[in-house]
Design brief:
Number of helices: 8
Number of strands: 10
Order of helices and strands: EEEHEEHEHEHEHEHEHH
Shape: globular
Structural class: alpha/beta
Strand content: 15-25%
Length: about 260
């Protein structure tokens, strides 16, 4: 691995290319332990579902995932229209003392959790104008990915498969096309199920992977978090190394050209 192979988000370098969520764990203690095992430095928080100070008297996630140790990435999970997503980002900025880095997602329906792309575009345009640094969740359409980049989003996060499905990278060709045409970081978001899925995303050239369910719903979340860390690192190294070409026929490991018999 090159000495300086940092992930750059909003001008800040990160040594880890794994971003993790905080939902679906049995308690905040397990959340904390799993995130530590993952090595992640950016942690996404669902503002509408997690207490970060808006609910007085309840456990505060920030006591377990402190902002001085992690970069918090407030997200708009649970929003089904542009207006609610925009309000959620404004609330996050207020609760986090002007924090403007956000993950935007506007969902289309509760069954598939696919993004409502037109509504996401609408919300992204408003948030960018208001000075937010928007990392946007979208589908795996290369045209829309470029549109979000041109709109001013600082990172584009196409799904690999439906949220929480664990199906892995269902359309590697689209993901690769998005990566090849991008000048902002591309991070796979949603659909990863295990460490090999994370490695494949990185081998495709993605700049990082964001996940939650794959770790939180594993039989051993802390061990899976550690596996995901290694999968990300292995996939990144393989991408940088450059894989051998695929061939239709065998090719001897020890060439016989020029050998004496």
């Amino acid at each position: 691995m090159p000495k300086d192979d940092s992930l750059i988000i909003d001008g800040h370098p990160y040594t880890s290319r794994l971003l993790v969520g905080t939902g679906k764990y049995k308690d905040f203690e397990e959340t904390q332990t799993a995130i530590e095992a993952s090595g992640a430095q950016i942690v996404t928080v669902a503002i509408r579902r997690t207490n970060i100070g808006q609910e007085k008297g309840e456990k505060n996630l920030l006591d377990y995932i402190p902002p001085d140790k992690y970069t918090l990435l407030p997200n708009t999970a649970g929003c089904y229209d542009a207006d609610s997503a925009i309000r959620t980002c404004r609330l996050a900025r207020e609760l986090l003392d002007g924090h403007d880095l956000v993950k935007l997602e506007v969902l289309g329906d509760e069954k598939t959790l696919f993004p409502d792309v037109p509504a996401t575009l609408q919300a992204a345009e408003t948030l960018v104008k208001e000075g937010f640094k928007v990392m946007v969740y979208t589908n795996d359409d290369p045209i829309m990915a470029k549109r979000f980049e041109e709109l001013g989003c600082i990172a584009v996060m196409p799904l690999a498969a439906p949220i929480g499905s664990g199906l892995g990278i269902r359309n590697p060709y689209n993901i690769r096309t998005i990566v090849e045409n991008a000048s902002v970081p591309i991070l796979v978001d949603a659909g990863v199920g295990t460490a090999s899925d994370a490695a494949i995303a990185m081998e495709l050239g993605c700049d990082g992977v964001l996940m939650n369910t794959a770790i939180a719903e594993a039989k051993d979340p802390v061990l899976m978090a550690s596996a995901m860390k290694k999968g990300i690192e292995a996939g990144r190294e393989a991408y940088l190394a450059g894989r051998m070409p695929r061939r239709a026929y065998a090719s001897a490991s020890s060439p016989i050209d020029g050998a004496f018999f």
